[in-house]
Amino acid sequence: MNEPLEKVYEEYQRYIYHLCLKLTRNQTEAEDLMQEVWVKVVRYQAYIKDVDHVKAWLTTICLNTFRDRYRKTVRRSKHILNQPEQLDVPVLDLIPSHALSTEDMLEKDDLSQMVQQKIAALDHIYKTTVLYFYVYQYSLVEIAALMKVSIGTVKSRLFRAKQRLKEMMIADTNAVEYLPA
Predict the structure, then answer these.
(1) Where does the RNA polymerase sigma-70 region domain start and stop, copy by copy (predicted)?
(2) Is residue 116 located within the same domain as residue 173?
(3) Judgement on whether residues 173 and 116 belong to the same structural domain of the protein
(4) Burial (CB count within 10 angstroms: exposed 0-12, middle 13-18, buried 19+), residue 87
(5) Which parts of the chain fold into alpha helices (H)?
(6) Cα–Cα distance between 149 and 172 in angstroms, integer?
(7) What is the domain count for the chain?
């Protein structure tokens, strides 16, 4: 260790330790965090001579290191559940899959068919407006031009169509199980 770095360590090591302890609230983790901070300080020791406020510089390194560790543990905990050491299932099974399960796909298909039946049962004007907007993805302006009505009328028709669809879904005993609580 060179002399300026030794002076920095002697002067600020207690401050950094207490900051780490305050952030982690755990002595072991504070010591680990402090070690990571000092490794970074050694890595970037060439910048010390350009720093006006060493304490602020060290504080920034400490806070950034803590944030990085926290984000890393959050990311890791999202992908692997906290399980006992002896797992009955492979670890890869604990990683969430973005693909729909067969059950979810069937439920989605059932719901899609129900909604299509309800849309088909709407009055022609509402059915057409819903299809233009949600299926063909026309803008409100385009729908207004196609139907030769104002944008306000298109909005009203969409609102009324959604209200009617909701009422029809609630009234259908088979559809009720798919509705959010």
Answers:
(1) 9-75
(2) yes
(3) yes
(4) exposed
(5) 3-24, 27-43, 54-79, 102-121, 124-130, 140-147, 151-171
(6) 32
(7) 2
Q: Rounded CA gap, 30 and 7, in Å? A: 22
Q: Do residues 10 and 53 share a domain?
A: yes
Distance from C-alpha of 22 to C-alpha of 15, rounded to nearest angstrom: 11
pLDDT in tens, the chain (181 residues): 466 788 889 999 999 999 898 888 889 999 999 999 999 999 988 888 888 889 999 999 998 898 888 777 766 665 555 544 554 444 445 555 566 666 667 777 877 888 888 899 999 999 999 999 988 888 999 999 999 999 999 999 999 999 998 888 888 877 666 666 5
Q: Cβ–Cβ contacts within 10 Å for residue 84, how many? A: 6
| Residue indicated by tokens 């010390």 | 48
- DSSP letter (8 states) at residue 48: G
